Structures are given as C-alpha cells and as structure tokens.
Amino acid sequence: ASHCWGYGEDDGPSSWHKGYPIAQGNRQSPVNIITAETMYDSSLSPLIVSYENYSSISISNNGCSVAVEYADAEQGPVIEGGPLGDAYRLKQFHFHWGHKDCQGSEHTVDGRTYASELHLVHWNASKYQTFREAVAAPDGLAVLGVFLETGKEHQGLTKITDALSMVKFKGSTADLKDFNPKCLLPRNLNYWTYPGSLTTPPLHESVTWIVFEEPIEVSKRQMEQFRMLLFSEEKEDEKFMENNFRPPQPLNGRKVCASYN
Ligand SMILES: NS(=O)(=O)c1ccc(NC(=S)OCCc2ccsc2)cc1
Ligand SMILES: [Zn+2]
C-alpha cells in the first residue's frame, strides 16, 4: 500500500513515485547546491529567529526519523524575514543521517555530503489555521536545514542524544521539556534559499527551504547514538535507523539564492 514507504531496497526513494506521483514533480527536495550557480539576492532581509518562547513537549521515533515536537502556541517560537512573507511557527525538528560519517545529509553542497542534516519545520500560522492545512500549501512551510559534521561534542545536542535510548523503537515517545532549539543553529546565519518540497512522503511541494552554509560540529559518539535507533517496532526483528536520507532531486530551472555575497 502507498502508506508504507521507507529507505530500503524495495520501499526506498526510487519507488516513492508509485504511491506519491509528486515525487517526480518540478519543485522536489533535497537538491545539490552548486555554489557557483547560486545568486546573491540583496533583497533578502536577514532571517529573524525568535525562539525565546519555546516549549518542547516530547521526543519520538516515528519510524523514519527522531523528532522533537513543540507546543502549538500563539506566541510560540517563530521565524520571519529572509525569503519569508509571513511568520512561520516551529512545529518540530528532526534529523537525517547515514551509516557512517561521510554521508547522511539530504542537501549536498557542490556534491559534498555531511554526516547528518537537522530540519527545523515551521508552518505559516499567519495564513493557515492548522499545520495540516499548511503542509499542502505552496507557501505553507519553511524548513531550516543545518548540516552536522563530526568534530568536537555539541553541548546543546547532548540533551537530545542522551534521550535517544528512550525512543529506540518505532512508535516510542518520551517527555522532553524545555529544549531550546536555538542552540542547534550555527553561529553564522548565512543561508541559501529555494522553493522545494517535503523530502519524505507525502512530498508536498509546500516548503521554502532555508539551508545554512555553516555546519555545526557534533562528536562521532553523538552520531553513533543516532545509529542505535531502530526503524523497527519492539516485536519486529531489529533494523537500525540509518541512511534515512533522500538523494538530491533535479532543480528543473529553480534558482538557489544566497543571503550573502
Ligand atoms: N524532511 S522534511 O523536513 O522535508 C519533512 C517535514 C515534515 C514532514 N511531514 C510532517 S511533519 O507530517 C506530519 C504528518 C502529516 C500531516 C499532514 S501530511 C503529514 C515530512 C518531511
Ligand atoms: Zn527532514
């Protein structure tokens, strides 16, 4: 059935189009960012990240990634400015990673892959009533992409990586209060932006992508902790959660704009 998709041989990205024809659409994500072909857009105002009023709720293993959910509050954490016409509210963040540190990101930069990619998913609460409504609208979502590369341990991330053992199995959830997502952003907020899609089914072409140029550093041990998660449920035979990334898709004439010269 179309609802069961994954990252394996038979249900992976190359077969998603069978259940989700939009997989072959003309604004799909991720993409390879060819830096020489990006366009500096001086009209891009600085990105405004207002994450002060955050209230994280839980961390969960949804069978394709591990996600931290935020309360859907009026005055919740939002981003605005940059390429965005409205304020977009943080709903959740999650990660994509590889079997080893040399691959795992979804976006690539001049063909370079990173160990992992963090996605902070926001929805246009100025224009839509619910996330479900926004998720299918062309200006419904804005996702911040942050590359992770291995180096020194990331202090802020330890609260997440130390909680991963509590959500080992698909369908498991654990409390995760007061996690401030701001600590996961790189120091330098230079970014690339382009119109794209969700990188997993339902692959809706509803995302304004904002991908930071500067990666954050995490330790090899922290990456190993992601790799002990399972795609499988408690009763099923163990399938380690890794390589949960979609490869780059055709740009189809889209321009990737740079916030910096
Ligand atoms: N990897 S990604 O950031 O492009 C990304 C973000 C969100 C989602 N999907 C979400 S949060 O869906 C929640 C459930 C839902 C609701 C309406 S359609 C799916 C998929 C991929
Ligand atoms: Zn993602």
Secondary-structure element pattern, one letter each: HEEEEEEEEEHEHEEEEHE
For the sheet with most strands, the description reads: 13 strands, mixed
The helix-and-strand class reads mainly beta
> Whole-number average pLDDT?
97
Radius of gyration: 17 Å
Which small-molecule ligands are present, each listed once?
A: the ligand NS(=O)(=O)c1ccc(NC(=S)OCCc2ccsc2)cc1, zinc ion
Please give the share of residues in helix.
under 10%
Number of continuous helical runs: 4
Q: What distance lies between the first and last C-alpha atoms, to the nearest angstrom?
A: 47 Å
For the secondary structure, the number of strands is 15
The 3D shape can be described as globular
Residue fraction in strands: 25-35%
Low-confidence stretches: none
